[in-house]
Amino acid sequence: MTNHWIDIKNADAVLIMGSNAAEHHPISFKWVLKAKDNGATVIHVDPKFSRTSARSDIHVPLRSGTDIAFLGGMIKYILDNGKYFREYVAEYTNAAHIVNRDFDFKDGLFSGFDAKGRRYDTKSWTFEMDGAGIPKRDKTLKDPRCVFQLMKKHYSRYTLENVSAVTGVSRENLLKVYEAYGATGVPDKAGTMMYALGWTQHTVGVQNIRAAAIIQLLLGNIGIPGGGINALRGEPNVQGSTDHALLYHILPGYHGVPLADWPTLADYNKANTPVTKDPASANWWQNRPKYVTSLLKGWYGEKAAKENDFCYGLLPKAEKGVDYSYMFLFDRMYQGKIRGGFIFGLNPMNSLANTVKSRASMDRLDWVVVSDLHHTETTDHWRRPDIIPADNKTEYFFLPSAHRIEKEGTVSNSGRWLIWHHKAIEPAGEARTFGYMVVGMMKALREKYRKEGGALPEALLFQDWPETFVAEDWTKRINGFFLADTTFGGKAYKKGQLVPTFGALAADGSTSSLNWLYTNSFTEEDGNKSKRRDPKQTPMQEKIGLYPNWAWAWPVNRRIIYNRASVDPAGKSWNPQKALISWQDGKWVGDVPDGPWPPMASSGGKNPFIMQPQGFGQIFGPGRLDGPFPEHYEPVETPLTAHPFSRQLSSPVYKSVSSDLDPLAKPGDPAYPIVLTTYSLTEHWCGGGETRNVPALLEAEPGLYVEMSHELAKEKGIKNGDEVIVENVRGKVKAVAMVTVRIRPFTVQGKTVHLVGMPFCFGWSTPKSRGAANRLTPSVADPNTTIFELKACQVNLRKSDKTGGTA
Amino acid sequence: MSKVVFVDTSRCTACRGCQVACKEWHELPANDTRQTGSHQNPPDLNPYNYKVVRFSEHLDGDTVRWYFFPDQCRHCEEPPCKMEADEHVKGAVVRDGKTGAVIFTPKSKKLSAAAFEKVRKFCPYNVPRRNPDTGAMVKCSMCNERVVRGMPPACVKVCPTGTMNFGERTDMLALAKKRLQELKAKHPKARLVDPDSVNVIYLLIDEPARYYEYAAVPEGGPLGRQQFLAWLFSPLKKSVDTVARG
């Protein structure tokens, strides 16, 4: 989240889209309802009427996979009706920037498309520079080549007629939402957007969020209380695991993973450190070399020295253009290219797309180690119902894992708060914590390499590795240390003392930090700040519920990021009633400002979007692989045969894999006319491996269902509670029909399109809960993130004749 | 003065935290439930669920309404169940004068099946259940053992949205009336359910029957003879008058 949970209460309009917040993040509704109490309009745009919709003022059903059409229509509405916050847009976003003459958009494709390689050459997606190397701007926003005018042209096709025809949302409902949300484009109003996997799990996932960001920038809703783009992160620690690089493409602290093309640290830094010639741009990532060297010092300790490139050479390097995400990982497994591996706290046999294939892929491994709380579809894959265990060649090792209440440590919540959790009880039986397992395993491996040698033993032996796992030692290592006596901020620090803030990190090897974003969380001055529980606030902070002394938020306890955008160029809050920061008597008060510099209009002032090289909010976003403006493309499996206002039906650059187990239905395939969307529910977490083992939760939601409209049920001769078979080109699954008014047929391009929905949390390891909905979902993915398109594919369904045989 | 649980259904997201917390606090086993085409599960109150969130959906024109009703014992000021049980086994049902909690005691095991059936029918909210193994009558106890130690009932403690509230009767009635006032403009049918005669007071935004058959004592509705007698002989004159006027 750019903001945090409590801050939702400051919103005047709440748009929940791509999320079922009340069901999946129940605590969020404590704050949504407070906003509603204060007069906010709560809007839910989602294919089905859910528990979120029940508590919203407006629910608008939308055909799954058409969010960009809906949001593009809102962009057009905001522009046509002058609802945007003009000064914010002109001063703080790149709307005024003049775009490269060669940039173009035609027939659904941006300039630079390479049809054979299915990718874009993005060299024309750039700005024109003046003689000093600073982007040319027209703050009147009238230049036909400026971002604002190009955006206007791009979204001119997103008329109410076109949007309504493709989304299945009535014109009346479109306008209802556009008007209610567009009303926040004034200085003293705020609108927040809450999203989750309903936006990310599409072949246009990143662009869904980009479209939202454009709206928030147009309305001046970024960096302010009650505003923001708020990704609702899962369980307690998805934010923390992302920050610490759970995914393959980054190192801790959002540094790109090293590529084979960058053999030295200097090469890496050159390729990854942006430059600007604009003195008004903070260009925060210019500090990257300090953070990366400190990370290497954190990993390799004394062994990392300037002479050996701080052991950069020991890091594994990825091959350029090779994707190491789940979709490709399991494809390589299916091709027999992977022999074994570790799975911690994950149930991929249930939660990945196309489990027919992922299950077949796992069978090709020689060995697998799974660590989990319970037996799941993954831990017990070798004895699943449709195989003979003796025929399964894979050797399975199960490491019972401690539950989160059986261990201490930090979690980072959705609002980026680092919060210490105490251990409540000892782990049961032979269960051990993840830290215990990993530290112990590495110790054993190091011992083996020390004795026996092997290929590149330094990669393990040079690591600064502890004897035992102590959670708080790692909290300190993550914050980082001075490795030499240093004076910083007028204060003398001894070698071995904690660094007070990332401003103290250096590229010369004199500091360490396992994650620059978390420096300042554990200091000599204040100790472990994740343990703070002080509700003290200044009167200014009290008005917006900022609570700066409760736990700690990254970065440097900043509670709302991009907060320099909450003030005008002179440093005065756009909305004094809910001021976030304010420039008073030569200093900032309120939240921790986004950098210490004075207001933008003063000498030495900086542009507010400090993480962007030029310091502007990106309406034109050149950093994505699929275009600088979001464009509506249909899901890969779609009920349509043609795009209503473009020649390009689906994303031209979505990622996919191909094998005998990866068939796709052709667009508008009459055999599979029904849209399927998949989701979670309050009572079960993700793949269900944990919650299906909690009796009171399983009692409340015992098995797989498929929600459908009365109209579809009537067409198919299905009654509520009947067992049905849902099937498509990849698989079939049995489910109980839940016939409901909460799903209604859509009218798309004048024709009726039915949509059904299924949760993906059920699986064979829980008796009678029926099979995995993910047998039906396809291995196609967003080009930027390789997140599967789990939210929209095509199926058919029929009443079960009790001979189906699906697990 | 009694304690009151105020249930503001206008804030309920049916997360069922209350249903689960109730089960866990009372250490009740799970029922072997089935998906039958509804989210309401277990489908009804039973010996192992003193609290069940009821779901009811309606389509009014093009508007979908989905109502949630976290059902539990209302802890009547003058409980008809106690009146009837007293006829059979004294002390099977007691009322804690300090908190207002109406409690089924282990003595209720001595009630015959027929006597239990009478007690059940006397409850206008269809709450009492009988444990088939022990023969004891069971239901929500208002977590009286927590309440006397200064803690809120488990269902109130876990509620994330402000649906479940707990406190002194005067404070809860004031909160309930304030919320009703706020909701009336948008929901003209909003009401408090039987606030003068019970200590678990529901705020609904629509007709009670649109939530659940036994959400409220029906005004002039077809009460069974048994229930009507219970009502008639109870000192709840105000309600009786309402029913009689029909």
Quote the distance from N terminus to C terminus of chain B: 31 Å
CATH architecture of the largest domain in chain B: 2-Layer Sandwich
Helix-strand makeup class of chain B: alpha+beta
Strand content of chain A: 15-25%
Taken together, the total number of domains of chain B comes to 2
Structural class of chain A: alpha/beta
Biggest interface between chains: A-B, 40 and 35 residues
**H/E order of the elements of chain B?**
EHEEHEEHEEHHEHEEHH
Strand order in space, largest sheet of chain B:
8-1-10-9
CATH top level label of the largest domain in chain B? Alpha Beta
> Could you name the ranges of chain B where pLDDT drops below 50 across 5 or more consecutive residues?
221-225, 236-246
Features:
heterodimer; A: 807 residues; five-stranded parallel beta sheet; 16% strand; globular; disordered C terminus; B: 246 residues; alpha+beta; Alpha-Beta Plaits; 2 domains; four-stranded mixed beta sheet; 8 helices
Outline the secondary-structure elements:
The complex is a heterodimer of chains A (807) and B (246).
Chain A: E1 13-17, H1 21-24, H2 28-37, E2 41-45, H3 51-54, E3 58-60, H4 67-80, H5 86-92, E4 105-106, E5 109-110, E6 113-114, E7 119-120, H6 147-154, H7 160-167, H8 171-182, E8 191-195, H9 197-200, H10 205-218, E9 229-231, H11 238-243, E10 250-251, E11 255-256, H12 265-272, H13 288-300, H14 326-334, E12 340-344, H15 348-351, H16 355-362, E13 367-372, E14 395-400, E15 409-412, E16 417-421, H17 434-452, H18 458-461, H19 471-479, E17 481-482, E18 486-488, E19 491-493, E20 511-512, E21 522-523, E22 527-528, H20 539-542, E23 552-553, E24 581-584, E25 587-590, E26 655-656, E27 674-679, H21 695-700, E28 705-708, H22 710-716, E29 723-727, E30 732-739, E31 746-748, E32 751-753, E33 755-759, E34 780-781, E35 793-799
Parallel strand pairs in A: 1-2, 1-8, 2-3, 8-9, 12-13, 13-14, 27-33, 28-30
Antiparallel strand pairs in A: 4-5, 6-7, 10-11, 15-16, 16-23, 17-20, 18-19, 21-22, 24-25, 26-34, 27-35, 29-30, 29-35, 31-32
Helix pairs in contact in A: 4-7, 4-8, 4-10, 14-16
Chain B: E1 3-8, H1 17-25, E2 52-60, E3 63-71, H2 80-88, E4 93-95, E5 102-104, H3 113-122, E6 129-130, E7 137-138, H4 144-147, H5 154-158, E8 164-168, H6 169-184, E9 191-192, E10 200-204, H7 225-233, H8 237-245
